[in-house]
């Protein structure tokens, strides 16, 4: 019963239901609810529904993806289809990311050295800000 109520409140929070909408959804789902139970759920939702909705909103924002692994390498582009003598260094990054669905996906990209230095600077700034929290 507790799991059912938690699931019901989470779903109502995600959908931003009002107390009346929650009651009507519960009554649609089953006609076995007694009036006293419906009244208690309505009162609880009226008092705490906004905080449940806010919590679900934060949870959905935070559950985007999680960085699992970073692999990088420094390489040299010697030539390309359009340029015989390129001789340009670059950094290749491979990110392993845990999706909210539970699957791990890989994302790779390449950056020039100045782009990588800017990326590194931004990461250091983020780390410094996170240490203050």
TrEMBL record:
Gene Ontology MF, one: NF-kappaB binding
Domain COMM per the UniProt entry, residue ranges: 66-133
Domain of life: Eukaryota
InterPro entries listed in its UniProt record: COMM (IPR017920), COMMD4/6/7/8 (IPR047155)
Function: Scaffold protein in the commander complex that is essential for endosomal recycling of transmembrane cargos; the commander complex is composed of the CCC subcomplex and the retriever subcomplex. May modulate activity of cullin-RING E3 ubiquitin ligase (CRL) complexes. Down-regulates activation of NF-kappa-B. Inhibits TNF-induced NFKB1 activation.
Protein family membership: Belongs to the COMM domain-containing protein 6 family.
Protein name: COMM domain-containing protein 6
Taxonomic lineage of the native organism: Eukaryota, Metazoa, Chordata, Craniata, Vertebrata
């Amino acid at each position: 019963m507790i799991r059912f109520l938690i699931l019901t409140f989470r779903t109502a929070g995600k959908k931003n239901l009002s107390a009346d909408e929650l009651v009507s959804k519960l009554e649609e789902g089953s006609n076995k609810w007694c009036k006293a139970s419906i009244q208690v759920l309505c009162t609880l939702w009226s008092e705490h529904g906004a905080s449940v909705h806010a919590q679900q909103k934060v949870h959905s924002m935070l559950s985007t993806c999680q960085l699992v692994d970073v692999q990088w390498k420094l390489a040299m582009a010697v030539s390309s289809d359009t340029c015989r003598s390129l001789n340009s260094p670059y950094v290749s990054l491979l990110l392993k990311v845990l999706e909210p669905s539970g699957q791990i996906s890989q994302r790779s990209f390449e950056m020039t050295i100045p782009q990588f230095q800017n990326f590194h600077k931004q990461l250091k700034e983020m780390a410094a800000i996170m240490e203050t929290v």
